[in-house]
Amino acid sequence: MSFVAKMSSTGLLLVLSIGTGFWLSSYGKPFNSALFNIHKLIALATAIYTAILVRNLLKGIDTSALIQIMVIALGLSLIILFGSGILLSLGKAPYNLIKTVHTITTFSTLLATVITFYLLLINRS
Ligand code: HEM
Description:
The chain is mainly alpha-helical. It has one domain (3-124). It has helices spanning 3-26, 33-58, 65-90, 95-124. The model has no long low-confidence stretch (mean pLDDT 95). Helices cover 85% and strands 0% of the residues. The site of protoporphyrin IX containing FE (HEM) has 24 residues, from helix 1, helix 2, helix 3 and helix 4.
């Protein structure tokens, strides 16, 4: 698969995760269970796919400190997204705070993904 195809497929999965997230939110509580499962499964696929892809792209190249920082930021954002997503679904933690964390880390994940792929792209050329 070409680098562009890898970038686009990650982007598509991320857009689907974000889209199903806002769609799920728009129905309010209690969560629509079908949409909740779709959101969870797409998010899981996104995280696994992105992790495998970035790991493979990092193999055998000299990584700058900036790439390493962005990869760590991406990993942390995904972990916090999953943690806050689980807390939201359990409904036991402070709702507004956790929802804000989930929304903010959605955008930090998006930003870290774009910057990581951009750095990997210019590193290859
Ligand atoms: C790639 C990972 C994920 C992304 C990008 C993502 C993104 C989003 C977004 C953008 C929203 C809408 C937030 C808003 O309305 O301000 C949302 C809502 C939600 N997400 Fe996720 N999410 C991810 C993973 C997960 C996981 C793993 C879970 C559960 C285990 C989860 C559970 C939820 C729940 C329950 C809501 C509804 C919140 C509410 O409206 O009260 N998310 N997600």
